[in-house]
């Protein structure tokens, strides 16, 4: 898929949590956003920071074609992301997109599909869920968080499908980790997952034990996003590969977990 380097204008910086902000952006020149697939990511330049020289990889949270808006969910993970979180309406941002591969389509519209997200890992699940629904599928979501106040974009997910929640302190949904949520005991044909590595590995274990097809979106550290720096290498059954070019989405059978 063709890659673009484009300048975007911030339409809105929506602080949805003390650690997360939703950046809604549109091309400065008014041109339509390029084609982007669920699971892909962008590399965002960080201007005005004396210590941040590399672009920051951010998952595509949503593509609102009606308004020509790109949504990026940004987590406070250091000076670079804090600079992005401080952007204001009408600020300009240079972005490389779209990068990486995408999620694979389920086999049948009758498949029972579960999209699992934890922390900022919920980001790609929103766009993917919306695309699945538009194609006639009925996605369900499982969101994991520490507490009720940490559950991200719940209302957006509820517009698309049934949402199950697990919180560590039990303040919303089931108490515990996503891997103990009762929905995993129901019939599931396909799981898509993104979040912290321990969570994804635990979900992969559940999927393997129950012969469920499963894809995960890895969050390895990236610098270039183009396979040149080798920061994001992951060991797979075919050897070491760059997550930014061969992923970030992998079937769990491709990984050495």
Outline the structure in words.
The chain has 257 residues and is of the alpha/beta class. It has helices at residues 79-85, 123-134, 154-158, 197-209, 243-246; strands at residues 4-17, 20-27, 41-44, 56-64, 69-75, 92-99, 113-118, 139-145, 163-167, 174-175, 190-194, 213-217, 233-236, 239-242, 249-251. It folds into 3 domains: 4-99, Elongation Factor Tu (Ef-tu), domain 3; 113-216, Rossmann fold (3-Layer(aba) Sandwich); 220-257, Ribbon (Dihydroorotate dehydrogenase B (pyrk subunit), domain 3), CATH 2.10.240. It is 16% helix and 35% strand. It has a 7-stranded mixed sheet, with helices on both faces. A 6-stranded antiparallel barrel has the order 1-2-5-4-3-6. It has a two-stranded antiparallel sheet with strand order 13-14. The protein is built from 5 helices and 15 strands. The model has no long low-confidence stretch (mean pLDDT 96). The protein is globular.
Task: For the structure shown, list the relevant keywords.
3 domains, Dihydroorotate dehydrogenase B (pyrk subunit), domain 3, Elongation Factor Tu (Ef-tu), domain 3, alpha/beta, Rossmann fold, 257 residues, 15 strands, globular, 6-stranded antiparallel β-barrel
């Amino acid at each position: 898929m063709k890659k673009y380097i484009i300048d975007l204008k911030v339409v809105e910086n929506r602080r949805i949590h003390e650690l997360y902000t939703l950046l809604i952006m549109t091309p400065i020149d008014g041109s339509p956003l390029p084609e982007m697939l669920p699971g892909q990511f962008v590399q965002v330049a960080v201007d005005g920071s004396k210590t941040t020289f590399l672009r920051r990889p951010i998952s595509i949270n949503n593509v609102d074609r009606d308004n020509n808006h790109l949504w990026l969910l940004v987590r406070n993970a250091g000076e670079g992301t804090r600079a992005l979180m401080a952007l204001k309406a009408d600020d300009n941002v240079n972005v490389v997109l779209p990068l990486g591969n995408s999620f694979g389509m389920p086999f049948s519209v009758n498949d029972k599909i579960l999209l699992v997200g934890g922390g900022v890992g919920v980001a790609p699940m929103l766009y993917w869920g919306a695309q699945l629904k538009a194609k006639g599928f009925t996605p369900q979501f499982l969101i994991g968080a520490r507490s009720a106040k940490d559950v991200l974009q719940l209302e957006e997910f509820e517009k698309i499908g049934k949402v199950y929640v697990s919180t560590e302190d039990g303040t919303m949904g089931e108490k515990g980790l996503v891997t103990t949520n009762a929905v995993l005991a129901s019939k599931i044909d396909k799981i898509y997952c993104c979040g912290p590595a321990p969570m994804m590995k635990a979900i992969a274990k559940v999927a393997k034990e129950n012969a469920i097809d499963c894809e995960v979106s890895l969050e390895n550290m990236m610098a270039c996003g183009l396979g040149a720096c080798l920061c994001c290498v992951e060991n797979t059954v075919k050897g070491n590969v760059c997550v930014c070019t061969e992923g970030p989405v992998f079937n769990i059978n491709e990984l050495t977990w």
